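[scheduler] slot 2 assigned
[scheduler] job type: sequence-to-structure, two independent chains
[scheduler] chain ordering preserved from manifest
[runner] begin chain α
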Amino acid sequence: VLLILAGITIGAITGSNGIIGQAQSAKEETEISQEKEIIDISTVEAMGKNNRGNLEEEEFQSVLNSHTNGNVTVSDIGEEFEVFFEESNRYYTVDKDGNILDYIEGASDKYPGDITRKEDGTVLDGSEDNPYEINCIEDLVAFSNMVNGTGKVFQNGQMIDAKDAKQIGNESTIILTRNLDFKSSASYINSQRTDFGDINGDDNDGNTLITEMTNENGTGFPPINMNISFIFDGKGYTISNIYEKNRVAGKGLGLFGNLSGYNVTIQNLTVEGKIDNQLESESNYSATGGIVGTIWGASMNAKIYNCKSNVEIFANGYGTAGIIGNAPLNNIDIINCANTGKINNLSHSTGGIAGIIECTTAHIQNCYNTGEISSTGSMAGGILGYAYDGDIIIENVYNRGEISKNGAWGRGGILGRQTNGSQCSIKNVYNMGKIIEQNVNWTYSFGAIVGRTENENLLNIENCYYLQDSCSKEVGYSSTDFAGITSLENIKGEEIMEEFNSYINSNGLKEEGWKEWTLGDDGYPTLEE
């Protein structure tokens, strides 16, 4: 009452911009400044003690101990160090020169390894309004174990076999609540826990969870395999430093390995890391994708929206790409997606966005690839490797990645090969990635836009551009002069950007979800936000 009489409202005290909120914010800013100062002083001292002036983990930790109460831990996570302040639960990333790059709050979850409960204990049912939550690496591993029916999960306050756990129902929704980094202890509640057991097939590495996920002597993260309808919403977050290695022929790899539900939606997600799906001594007919290995099923509908892969992929399989390796299903939409990771496939059907599509209808829109596509097998394209079957529409996309190495049967800047069973439409695209024509016996299967077409009447091309020196032909294995293709000496500047946007506006394509083009910082047209 006295506060009200004094003209001070409760909101002025307790609101986010209130007196208490401002005091808390000021306290946190002071703590962060103090923690950064401790790191700065410690890095200088540690580097001074090193004969070569390097920053080494042991010396760094020793100096940190001298400036703190021993509640600060440093870990070498590869190219950087991670410094953890236990009392504040903050993790600082420090490069090998001692520069502080970033800091984050550590993951917080009272039920790590149980996606059916919120941090406060609220039970989740997987509905759209009450979705399952992935708050930490433990949750992501448990989610994979649960749907794969292997390993352990945490439910009802204890670790149990996944096959005995509560199962995810059909048409469930799963959301990611924060950025996760497999190499960062900040993404785990306890990165040293061992109760998940041997996940990576190397029982001699101590079985700490962070080691199971990152040790390249093992198999790494177990891909998520699901045979139900679901929505996975990354909420714009990133999963970093994923590592997977295949030791079994026919096993698909990706964040999601093999999916076969009736309706599948994956959206608003970025994945970064490394996937190795090469088997040295045998043929491997599995597919590999940064987001999904294979989505299959005669009556399926799949949607992949707003996803980006920066995964370095090494494969020897049937269908390899940044977003999805193989899509033998009814209908698929791949919208607003990108690949920036390098892809190397020893077998065939390799693409920046999709490896092979054999379906009723497929729609690839507002997508781009900047990663190098390297393939010693057949069929490789900057966007799609192999259009095997169905009505396939590729529109408003671009490729800047080089298509390299030996191989036949179609290598193209946008599409590698189109068979007689596939009707393809390619509109409003450009390619500036060079097509390396190394196999002189198959020169006619290389093209700046399409590497090889087996039926020119089933190929429609409109408003497509390519860099003049990217390839000696526009469409390989074709005698048709496609009027919709234009060669340019340089794909740069506002003029070509306006050409793309004019095509969109004159055809009323904004209402169909076509993005307008902008100029990137390098002066080239881009679809990035």
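[runner] end chain α
[runner] begin chain β
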Amino acid sequence: MTIELSTSVLPQFTRKAYQSSDYPEWLQQIVRDILQARIYDLAIKTPLEQLQGLSAKTGNRLYLKREDLQPVFSFKLRGAYNRIRQLPADIKRRGIVCASAGNHAQGVAVAAQKLGIRAVIVMPATTPEIKVEAVAARGAEVVLEGDSFDQALVHARSLQKKHGLEFIHPYDDPSVIAGQGTVGMEILQQAPEDLHAIFVPVGGGGLAAGVGAYVKYLQPNVRVIGVESVDAASMKLALEQDNPTSLPQVGLFADGIAVKQVGAMNFQVCREVIDDIITVTPDEMCAAIKDIFEATRSISEPSGAVAVAGMKKYAALLGRNDLAMAAVSSGANMNFDRLRHIAERTAIGEQREALFAVQIPEQVGSFRKLCRALGKVNVTEFNYRYSRDHQDASIFLGVQVTGAPQRQTFYETLRQQGYELIDLTDNELAKEHLRHTVGGRAARLANEHLFRFVIPERPNSLRDFLDAIGQEWDISLFHYRNHGTDYGRILVGLDVPPQSAERFRQQLAQLSYPWEDETQNPGYQRFLR
């Protein structure tokens, strides 16, 4: 088996290398609009902060443009306010409308509140309540319609015609592009003179168009690199085909950049000013969220961290040291209940955890033999459920690794010892669902007893625990997950025939681990017994 790394730095298209002297007039107009954008009575000039830890890891000077510090925790305020403030007086009296489930909605609401304009914001009925409340708190009229953004957009357009409202596009508008372009203007003012590249998240393309147009006019030697989610790479597709093309579907993990088709105007600009597109996985975004948290103690949303993920990948692939690079942290409107999932995926995104399905004989002693075959590797997860109907048992195994080479070595080592295994590290089904649902009922196992144990986290702690239990009783269920704390928690099912029940109780009494008998727990009886 060969493990392939995602290496998608992609010059799949050709960009003309303009100098300032031959910059097209229509692009120069965007630059003038950026310079004339009057947004700072509402938006703020956000800092450009060096990511000290990540800089040390990569050997480069990496910076973060903190758009998460805007009043609505997102750069979207810039474009929305620049667009709305320029409206003629008669349109301002009638009001505005937009469709959005996130940051654009909040930007429009705050801008309208500042200017005293009626704002109707159509959001999908599936929008989390926290976002709906945030928009309503800014004085906007919230209309919930449909189950998707596309359905909300159709309704917003109908309200536009019915009530004579002005539609505020989230990205494909010259005034919005100019407002977002002020991010690039600030970066050039704040960054070191030897700035090598700027990494910009790409959804509809408004931010990339604005930043790229400004930066390439003033400093054409600075690379402008767009970053997209690998399952929502609409700008990459458009640039490769030289035409905006709709994706059949997009992944929603980074919902702020989950756009099926980039804006037509944004595409025309990006085709001239974007140097490369990098795609990153959800796991890589999760790792970048952690990087940002460790540097700033702030929690980015996935789309807000995508540029940092792209900057990390670019730095690793480039293999050069001491380059100055900046990434835009575009937003921090994170739902709190997503943090568990993000933390779960971060280790894989950092290539510090690998997942495998390992097959072992369904017989006494094979479980212990596998643990010894693992050697000194730190186990992060071990899921197993007894099945009398099969000669072999399947183990869901997580191990700590230092990167792809060690993952490959671990795989080959177990194969050489005769184990059949499948690498599940890049299997979305396994990471999202399988790891939490391994198991089933054991109605035929009449003598199963279920226990919870707490063990200290240290090298070989899992093997020591199995040695302490002994080999007399067959393990019928096992779940363990390392959460990075001082103590680990294990759920164990043991087949204890009546004739050995007394010896089993004596064995339990001798254990040094805290434990609880869960055999009568209703959850166990309902789902696993």
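[runner] end chain β
[qc] chain β: Confidence is low (pLDDT under 50) at residues 1-12.
[scheduler] slot 2 released
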